[in-house]
């Protein structure tokens, strides 16, 4: 049997590959739809949906299913959601708008990402508590 | 190699160490500093912003900077190392502990200091390039 530490590392890695590639392709897709300068639409959608997903899984694992496999939880939360969402790109995009002197967009993107992100977390918890 | 294949491979090579360092740093800070505050995620997001600011400046300033290396470091490593979802979940967890001031500090502080870290990264890169 593989040691728990190795099993955790493998689970996180699998989730991380799926998460980071989804982030890349969603961003590329938004760029091809809205234009090269609109990749931040993708980051916004990714961060909000990732907040919803992580809250859903943590709540489900904490409150519903006591025997939720620890490796599955790591794969989905630390691995997938952690890699899918990104804090650094969000801040870099905000800095880009500031550098372009687009103060209104910079503030709106900066503030509404963290505000709507929390709405995503809240919805994730509510959704997990919904089914029974 | 075709970009269709090389790009996702580059991202993957950056993503795995990114996620694992996040995991181990989080575990390490929990063991040493405790669980009163999400020290790990806080530290990770700030250092990740610094790295991204640094490498974004390099990739846009240096001529012929390889696209694969850019994807490996920025989209792969920095993007995966830092996390928005855990930051959101940590904020809710702090809120549930009834420490409202610490919650607001973590929620707004991460976002304000993260932006500062981007500028610091850009500043360091510009110092080195000149």
Give the structure's gist in a few sentences.
The complex is a heterodimer of chains A (132) and B (130). Chain A is globular, with a radius of gyration of 17 Å.
Verbal overview:
The complex is a heterodimer of chains A (132) and B (130). With 132 residues, chain A is an all-alpha fold. The N and C termini of chain A lie far apart (36 Å). The longest helix of chain A is centred in the N-terminal third of the chain and has 31 residues, at 4-34. Chain A contains five helices and no strands. Chain A is globular. Chain B is built from five helices and no strands. Chain B has helices at 3-33, 39-61, 67-81, 85-96, 100-129. In chain B, helix 1 packs antiparallel against helix 2 (39-61). The longest helix of chain B is centred in the first third of the chain and has 31 residues, at 3-33. The N and C termini of chain B lie far apart (33 Å). The relative contact order of chain B is 0.17. At the A-B interface, helix 1, helix 2, helix 3, helix 4 and helix 5 of A face helix 1, helix 2, helix 3, helix 4 and helix 5 of B.
List keywords for this structure.
heterodimer; A: 132 residues; mainly alpha; 5 helices; B: 130 residues
Query: How much of the polypeptide of chain A forms β-strand, as a percent range?
Result: under 5%
**Total count of strands of chain A:** 0
Number of helices of chain B: 5
* Total domain units of chain A: 1
Distance between the termini of chain A: 36 Å
End-to-end separation of chain B: 33 Å
- Subunit arrangement of the protein: heterodimer
List segments of chain A where confidence is low: pLDDT < 50 over at least 5 consecutive residues: none
Biggest β-sheet of chain B: count, sense, barrel? none
Give me the secondary-structure category of chain A: mainly alpha
Helix vs. strand class of chain B: mainly alpha
Helix content of chain A: over 70%
Largest interface: A-B, 47 and 47 residues
């Amino acid at each position: 049997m593989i040691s728990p530490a190795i099993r955790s590392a493998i689970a996180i890695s699998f989730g991380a590959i799926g998460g980071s590639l989804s982030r890349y392709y969603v961003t590329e897709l938004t760029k091809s739809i809205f234009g090269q300068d609109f990749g931040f639409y993708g980051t916004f959608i990714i961060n909000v949906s990732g907040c919803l997903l992580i809250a859903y899984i943590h709540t489900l694992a904490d409150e519903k299913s006591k025997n939720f496999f620890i490796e599955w939880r790591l794969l989905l939360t630390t691995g997938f959601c952690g890699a899918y969402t990104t804090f650094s790109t969000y801040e870099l995009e905000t800095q880009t708008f500031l550098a372009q002197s687009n103060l209104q967009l910079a503030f709106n993107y900066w503030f509404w990402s963290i505000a709507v992100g929390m709405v995503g977390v809240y919805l994730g918890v509510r959704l997990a508590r919904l089914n029974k | 190699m075709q970009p269709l294949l090389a790009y996702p491979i580059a991202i993957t090579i950056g993503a795995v160490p990114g996620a694992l360092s996040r995991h181990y740093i989080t575990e390490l800070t929990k063991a040493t500093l405790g669980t009163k505050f999400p020290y790990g995620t806080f530290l990770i997001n700030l250092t990740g912003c610094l790295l991204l600011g640094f490498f974004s400046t390099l990739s846009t300033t240096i001529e012929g900077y390889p696209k694969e290396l850019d994807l490996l470091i920025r989209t792969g490593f920095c993007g995966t190392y830092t996390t928005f979802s855990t930051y959101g979940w940590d904020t809710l967890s702090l809120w549930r502990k009834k420490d409202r001031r610490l919650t607001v500090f973590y929620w707004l502080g991460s976002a304000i200091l993260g932006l500062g870290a981007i500028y610091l990264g850009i500043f360091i890169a510009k110092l080195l390039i000149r």
